[in-house]
């Protein structure tokens, strides 16, 4: 793990890995979009509206994978003081929040024809909304800490606390929801037809590759910022 | 052990209403003013207020819990108390745990007392009031633990006060859901689950808070 702690080695790998992830991600995502929007058959009950599934499911998956990235990086930062872990966590926060917001937005747009309403206080929706606010809090905290020169372990602690809290939020809203009303619609996709399943798998893969590319780009930008600052400081000392 | 009790006594002298750190009654007054605000906003319909009153009290309690955050950790860190405690070999975790206890004593029971006039203003019946009070008893330790944790995380940041609210609200959602949810089921499991979440948070707070203080001190 610490083999990649050396920023120079990390940058050497990231330099060729970023375009590979970006291009393959763009290709697979574009292919999935074409397939999902034009080629896949319309669903029996929901008709054409079901096509938003091909955007909704990958974004929601990445919304959750984003916080997992933050949590694992935070653990590596706190336990092993891995020098790149803080950058990985910060790099994953903004795209993770964006995908969470996209997941909420596409779910809401889908909910309008499927459920007849933009928003229900259903367990899943509510816990995802809370996840979005956790992301926003994390981004604000990490930003304030890096602006004011605080320790990068501060946002890492919040990342871990948030990770412990997410299952609690998830189960608490499920329990709470069952008090007020039964869920408007089940997410029972177990009998999903293979053409949807494969399309979804490809969509998740494509979006994940794009996510990885964005995280690497953001990590490289953060590293460049640190290096520029260090160089300025060195120059100031020499002068 | 005696050192920890001394710290707890000192914390209480600081934080209890009328304590040396001042402004200790402000969260309670804020709580009452928020509870007073809702009838103005939704109208004085007694039936509606009685039905939503328990939830309003919970929201007011959560908002009031954000208010004292900036004076929980920051003054002691600025004055070097944490450095002194570290020199004495008292771990940050122990100090934070004492702080959670002291903060709860200065915040939980007074809030439960302040909930009585709030319940009267909102026209809650006796059964709902009992559930709200039991829920607050089970939930305020958790709120106190989140408060101390967030205070330790945002200490030393210029934008800390505004950040603290943003960080605290999503973490407090489970307490609010179970605490206010107990009203719909007539107590029982909801209050028990509020207590369970509280225990998890209280167990977590010393480690998260202690690590945050060490990180801020640059240790």
TrEMBL record, chain A:
One of its GO terms (molecular function) is heme binding. It is found in: Cell inner membrane; Membrane. It comes from the Bacteria. One of its GO terms (cellular component) is plasma membrane. GO terms for biological process: cytochrome complex assembly. Keywords: Cell inner membrane, Cell membrane, Cytochrome c-type biogenesis, Membrane, Transmembrane, Transmembrane helix, Transport. Residues 5-180 form the Cytochrome c assembly protein domain. It is a multi-pass membrane protein. It holds the Pfam family Cytochrom_C_asm. The chain crosses the membrane at residues 20-40, 52-72, 84-105, 125-145, 157-176, 196-217. Required for the export of heme to the periplasm for the biogenesis of c-type cytochromes. Belongs to the CcmC/CycZ/HelC family. NCBIfam families: ccmC. PANTHER family: CYTOCHROME B_B6 PROTEIN-RELATED, HEME EXPORTER PROTEIN C. This is Heme exporter protein C.
TrEMBL record, chain B:
GO terms for biological process: cytochrome c biosynthetic process; cytochrome complex assembly. The keyword Membrane applies. It comes from the Bacteria. Keywords: Cell inner membrane, Cell membrane, Cytochrome c-type biogenesis, Membrane, Transmembrane, Transmembrane helix, Transport. The chain crosses the membrane at residues 21-42, 48-69, 101-122, 134-155, 162-184, 190-213. Belongs to the CcmB/CycW/HelB family. Required for the export of heme to the periplasm for the biogenesis of c-type cytochromes. This is Heme exporter protein B. The lineage of its organism: Bacteria, Pseudomonadati, Pseudomonadota, Alphaproteobacteria, Sphingomonadales. The gene is ccmB.
